[in-house]
Amino acid sequence: MTTRRPVHRINAGGMSRRPDDLVVEAPLELHLDDTTLAVLMRTPGHDTELAAGWLLVESGTSAPEHIRQLRGCWKNETDAIEITLAAGVEPPRPRSFVTGAACGVCSADQLTLGPAIATCEKVLSADVARELPDALRRGQRAFERTGGLHAAALATYDGVLGPVREDVGRHNAVDKVLGRALMEGELPATDRLLVVSGRVSFEIVQKAVAAGVSGIVAVSAPSSMAVDLCEEYGLVLVGMMRRDHFNVYAGADRVSA
Question: What's the pTM value of the predicted model, to 2 decimals?
């Protein structure tokens, strides 16, 4: 979602006033019964997918039948999602404060990683890896207008990209993608790669592990903890994608030059 605001543009000809497109950032409350679980700062759109992806890590939810209902509503003068979990599914613990668009694990006191997935035998070719960021970029329609959004998608090892989701927050874009896969019964995604437009930090790998994906392709670089977690769980991790080179940070035995 985007909005138009007036800006002053300065160029060689001087200063002029004109409208410009900005990405919308707004709160989304997640409710379970009478409890507010979290308030997420996000870009409106695909909110039920965002909620499902958030639950994937926060509660260990791993299958569509674990979620009975995700219902969008207007509550406390704010967009909200009412969550109903299946019997026996342990609910997440409430976050203690608003989770900003730049924060994935802020205030969380439970980090659900789950068991290590079976080792994937698929090999990522360098040619496919190089093309994935460009394919993701072509799917970033709101970014074209604003320049202020992150994006994520799942892709096959043949380079076929799934639906692209955009958000002002890196981890929100990933939650939307993985939440959609969860609701469609496509997890664990052991034969898929997570493609992201930004850097890879611990919480991005955490979400990838929870979804069972076997590799991550990133435009930017990872953090040290992200690399360590990929090595621990056997994920391929490539980043710093450029047309003539990229880095393999983990899983080099499953990347062909």
Answer: 0.89
